[in-house]
Each structure stands twice: as structure tokens, then as C-alpha cells.
Amino acid sequence: MANQPRTLYEKIWADHVVEQRDDGTCLIYIDRHLVHEVTSPQAFSGLRANGRAVRRPDLTLAVPDHNLPTTARRDAAGRPLPIADPESAAQLDALTRNTADFGIDYIDALAPAQGIVHVVGPEQGFTLPGTTLVCGDSHTSAHGALGALAFGIGTSEVEHVLATQTLLLGRSKTMEVRVDGTLGFGVSAKDVALAIIGKLGAAGGTGYVLEYTGSTIREMSIEGRLTIANMSIEAGARAGLVAPDETTFAYLKGRPMAPKGADWDEAVAYWRTLPSDPGAVYDAVVTIDAAEIAPLLTWGTSPEDVVPITGVVPDPDSFADPAKRDAARKSLAYMGLTAGTAMQDVGVDYVFIGSCTNSRIEDLRAAAKVADGRHVADGVTALVVPGSGLVKAQAEAEGLDHIFISAGFEWREPGCSMCLAMNPDKVPPGQRCASTSNRNFVGRQGPGARTHLVSPAMAAAAAVTGRLSDVRNLVTNS
Amino acid sequence: MQPVTHVSGKAYPWGQKNVDTDVIIPAHWLKTITREGLGKGAFETVRAVPGNIFDDPRYAGSPMLIAGDNFGCGSSREHAAWALADMGIRVVLAPSFSDIFSGNAFKNGIVAVVLPQDAIDRLIEVAQDQPITVDLETMTVTTPYQDRFGFELDAFRRQCLMEGLDEIGLTLARDTQISKYEAGVKEHRPWMSGDRAHASTSVESGGRT
């Protein structure tokens, strides 16, 4: 059986089995653990209560992102500004104290490399192909873009990993999501992600690890792959993988925490053995033609509620499933939309460009290209929130901040910001937001907030026109 | 963890599909550093609507919740399980659960019972005015009308739930095996070790975006 073709997932799994139990579940070793302020305090309390240590602080990296305000963190004289919300401040203090007490590397709120945990991991070379990586955050699936088996865990599991560097897991089923062909003008990785979720449904990937394959994925940058893998969880899949290739190696080489010298060569040699073997069998296969993907957006309150920008708000009665009909009616009521309305006739109040899905340098470049020489429409509040301090510095070196600021966008400090309504950046009740984030759930961006998920270029297009707009009408194909 | 073997009583006959963890507990409740007291934030947006199921006196204090497909999707926040536990929920019954939520529920002594949609539909009907019973010993859900639905549960999870076992303690007992695995990695994939990654660098040193 040794020569039986294996998938990327099966190879990573096999190399991380500490032991297999009689029922088939395995104790799986965890190579990398990212920690943030929101889902870790109770885990550290648990360790303290039981007198337990962190087994491998050297494999653990902490950075605050979720509830950190994205306004200036220092005053004009360079002194750190306090965090106004006492609960947020207490959570950040807890992370500072916990990382110090347990000897964990900590990129604090004022560090140049601070950012969203899923932006920082790849950027620092902490995320590596063929590793198992976890974090108490469902969008940990993002790291699969580099060929790491990466998934979100709950706080009890955070505690379990801190204490044992392992998790007890059952094997997942595998699904190949093959995307072939060339993306059309104005179509980005975000549109591919939305197309996949639209096709699979919000629960279609439950129980599966997805592997994204095909020429479209191969030709995509790491930034684009991160966007797609990030949203695996929105199709219900806990993890999504892209096989490591030359693009991956070029991205990682020289990053601060990536292997160096002879270690690098050894690592690359190992990584080259990881891609799925020809003839490897997946439990399910889904194919998507890249040429058929238009710029997409969501109309409802589930990420599966996807429609092309040229489309209309669907009629709930058009759905075959009675439960979906009912859900669609509720969604339209919440979203303040009427069936049959052209998506491009819908006005927006807020635009959010950021989040672990779309806050990397390529995302900001795509948005800046649309914003350049234009201005945010009257009555629209538009935020650009870089994914990390390093992304921010890079964008500023390229002059993107000037483009955004002169176009009337707010240029913020790195963090999760308006993705999840647990820091001061919120969409007010009843207001509508074109957002590059990953979830359009009820109340996700604030109580009563109405979210349309879009790509960075589409978000910028909405900002400058004041309504949901087809970016292809605003930029030339050059 | 509180052992759970048998739960009998009222159930919220909800049936809602795709209930995400933002709905179970909105993010502004996540700024806590303890596990307690989240019940008051549970289903906040649902409870904002008059006549909602959670404030219906007929179901007040139910230890069970009946939901639709994909319960607990979205964010990995364990606060969702803590909030359910705090409001007294010991069992959630649904046709399917998100992978992360079912793990979180289990770690907090909440039984996630998977049943086919027709069984869920029947239980929603019965639970309008009758109690239901979930038994981990026999792995069945029963009603006063003699309905009897069998369900499956991972053997390890079932044992942990029924005995209230501490999973971390169980894994720490495998220390020899974990150390042996680590020694193997050190030999065959030394670049994987965090020590080397840290030795040559500081995370403060910048890098590329």
C-alpha cells in the first residue's frame, strides 16, 4: 500500500500522527499555534488552575488583533495611547501578562509587525508548508494557502494545544475544488472564493478538507490564495489547502521566521514531496470554470447568498427548498432589499476594505487603482485598514495611503476592525456596507448592520459611486 | 466537566437553519476573560424580536434546543458553547453541525445530537407541548408518543461526556508518545523546530509584506 497515491492532506496527516486510537481518531501533533487576545484568556486561566505549563512556547506566537482599535496608537509625541474600552484593555493586558508568564513570543499592539493574526503568520514565515497550524479563530483556514493544514479551534482546544502541543482529531473527508482557466477582467480571488461558496453552499464543505487545484489557483499569487483558503470555512470546511509550489517558496524565502541556509534547502526538498500524487482519490470533486466568474457580491445574510453584480435581488420563491425560501425572506427583510431590484441600484453608507480576507498589499493596490483620482461619494464612510504594520508600511512606500486619503478614505492602523463589531469600528443599525470581509451574518458588522461581501476593487467602486457598482465600468483593461 | 448521561425535559422547538455563532453570541460579548455569565447575551439578536422562541414562557428553562442544518457555523468562538451552557442547554439536536462548534460543545459537556431532518421535524412537532428524552446510554431520543430515534456519537466523546473526563489530563498521560514524536521531527525535519526559526531572527525585524 506504500505506493498508493495520496492527497496533500493525507501526506500532512500521516506525518503528524503521534498515535492512532482504536476508533481511528488520532493524536495529531501541532507545529504552529497562533494566539490572539479574544479566544485565549480562558485557556491560560485553565492552565494556571491546573498548574500546567505551555509545552512548546517556541512553536507559539501571539499577536492582538480582534478588539484593538484601529485609530492612532500613539500621540503626536510618540507616547502610547490608552485603550478607551476597559474590557478590551483588560483582554489585551491579559494577553501581555499570559505571554510573559508562559514565555511566548508576543508581537504587541505597538510593534511594527503587529497585524491580523492570519496576515502576520504568513508574512513572518511562521506559517510553513506541510505544517499543522491552529489558532482560536475560524479563518485560520487561510494558512492553507501555503500548504499548511490549518484550522480554527475553540478555546478548550487552545488550552489543549498549549498544554500538549497536540489535538485529538478524526480524519476529514477530502474534496478537490478545481478551478481552471483565466479570470476575466475585474475578477479577483475574492470573486473565486464567493463563486466556490455559492456553488458548495454554506454547509457544503462540512466534514471536508478542501484542496484548491487547477490552473487558476496555480497562476494566483499567495495573497490571492490566502483570500480563497481564508473563506473555506464559509463553505463549512474547517481547512482548505493549496499545494506548495515555486510561488510558495519564492514568497517564503527570507521571511524572518522561515528556515535559513541548509535548513531552507532541506525544507524545500520536503515541501516538494507534498503535492497530491497523480491519481490520488478525493471523496468529492467540484469543478469551476474561471472564465464564467463575474465580479460577485452577496445579497443576503449567508455567504452562500451570491449574485453577480449585474444581477438582481433574487425572489425568495425562486428557491426550491422551503427552508431556503423562508431564510431568504428573512434575509431580505433584514437587508432592507426587495426582490427584483438591480444590485447596482442599491446605495451604500459604509465601505470597509480590510480583514484577514482582503487586507494584504495586493488588495490595497487593487482598491487604490479604482480610488485613484476619484472621491468617496457624499454620505459614504470608507475605511481602509491594512492587515499588518508591514502591509501598511509597504502601502505607504508605494504612496497608496495618499491615494486613499486624498480620495476621502480613512487610513487606519492594522486590526480586524469592521469585520466583526468587537472594536470601535462598527456599521450602525440599518446602514449598508460594501465590505471585503468574510461574513454577512446578521449583526456581524454591528447590530442591525447590512453587509454585502465584495472584492477590494468592488468595495472601492462602491465607495466612489455611493452604490454597489460593477468595477469593470470604472477601470480600463490595461 | 459535568458528566451527562440522560437529559429529559422541554426543548426549544426552533428548527432554524445555518445558525451561526454570531447569532448564538454576538461579538461584543466576547470581551470577557472568563467563561461565565454569557447566557444573558445568548441569541441577543433573536431575542430582540417580540414573540421570539427564547422568551416564550412555554419553553423557559429548556435544557434542549432543536435546530436546523449547519448549527454553529461561522466563527470558532467557544463563547457560543459557554453561552448555551450558561442558559442551561445540555443538548442540541440538529441534522448537522459545524465541525468546530460540535467540538466546542463536546468540550463543555453539551451533547450535539445529529438526526435526520424528518426526525428533527417530528421532534419539533412533539416539543411544542411535550418533553423529549435524550439518553447517552442507549443513544436514543424518545418522546411520550413512543417515537424512538437512534443517534451515533464518537465512542471517545461519548465516554468523556458520560464520565465528565478531562481530555487534557488524558493527553498529558501520553507524554512518552508525544516526546517520541518530537524526537523524530528533530531528526527528520529539523527545520520545523521553533528554536531554529527564532535563533536567527526577531519578529520585530520587519520583512516583506
List the helices and strands and how they pair.
The complex is a heterodimer of chains A (478) and B (209).
Chain A: H1 8-14, E1 17-20, E2 26-29, E3 32-35, H2 41-49, E4 60-62, H3 86-102, E5 105-106, H4 117-124, E6 132-135, E7 149-152, H5 155-164, E8 166-169, E9 173-180, H6 189-200, E10 208-213, H7 215-218, H8 222-230, E11 239-241, H9 246-252, H10 261-271, E12 284-289, E13 296-298, E14 306-308, H11 322-335, E15 350-353, H12 361-371, E16 381-384, H13 389-397, H14 400-406, E17 410-411, E18 432-435, E19 450-453, H15 456-465
Parallel strand pairs in A: 3-4, 3-6, 4-5, 6-7, 9-10, 9-12, 10-11, 15-16, 15-18, 16-17, 18-19
Antiparallel strand pairs in A: 1-2, 2-8, 13-14
Helix pairs in contact in A: 2-5, 6-8, 12-15
Chain B: E1 6-9, E2 11-13, H1 21-24, H2 44-47, E3 64-66, H3 79-86, E4 91-94, H4 99-107, E5 111-114, H5 117-126, E6 132-135, E7 140-142, E8 148-150, H6 155-163, H7 167-172, H8 175-188, H9 194-199
Parallel strand pairs in B: 2-3, 3-4, 4-5
Antiparallel strand pairs in B: 1-6, 6-7, 7-8
Task: Output the structural class of chain A.
Answer: alpha/beta
How many distinct helices of chain B?
A: 9
Mean pLDDT of chain B: 92
CATH topology of the largest domain in chain B: Aconitase, domain 4
CATH architecture call of the largest domain in chain A: 2-Layer Sandwich
Tally the helices of chain A: 15
Explain what you see.
Chain B: Catalyzes the isomerization between 2-isopropylmalate and 3-isopropylmalate, via the formation of 2-isopropylmaleate. Chain B: It comes from Sphingomonas glacialis. Chain B: This is 3-isopropylmalate dehydratase small subunit. Chain B: It is an enzyme of class 4 (lyase). Chain B: It holds the Pfam family Aconitase_C. Chain A: GO terms for molecular function: 3-isopropylmalate dehydratase activity; 4 iron, 4 sulfur cluster binding; metal ion binding. The complex is a heterodimer of chains A (about 475) and B (about 210). By secondary structure, chain A is an alpha/beta fold. Chain A has 3 domains: about 10-170, Aconitase, domain 3; about 175-245 and about 270-290, Aconitase, Domain 2 (3-Layer(aba) Sandwich), CATH 3.40.1060.10; about 300-470, Aconitase, domain 3 (2-Layer Sandwich), CATH 3.30.499.10. In chain A, about 30% of the residues lie in helices and about 15% in strands. Chain A has 15 helices and 19 strands. Chain A has a 5-stranded parallel beta sheet with strand order 5-4-3-6-7. In chain A, α6 (about 190-200) links the parallel β9 (about 175-180) and β10 (about 210-215). In chain A, α2 packs across α5 and α12 runs parallel beside α15 (about 455-465). Chain A is globular. With about 210 residues, chain B is of the alpha/beta class. Chain B has 2 domains: about 5-165, Aconitase, domain 4; about 175-205, no CATH class. Chain B is about 35% helix and about 15% strand. Chain B has helices at about 20-25, 45, 80-85, 100-105, 115-125, 155-165, 165-170, 175-190, 195-200, and strands at about 5-10, 10-15, 65, 90-95, 110-115, 130-135, 140, 150. In chain B, the strands form 2 sheets. A 4-stranded antiparallel beta sheet of chain B has the order 1-6-7-8. Chain B has a 4-stranded parallel beta sheet with strand order 2-3-4-5. The radius of gyration of chain B is 21 Å and the shape is globular. The relative contact order of chain B is 0.15.
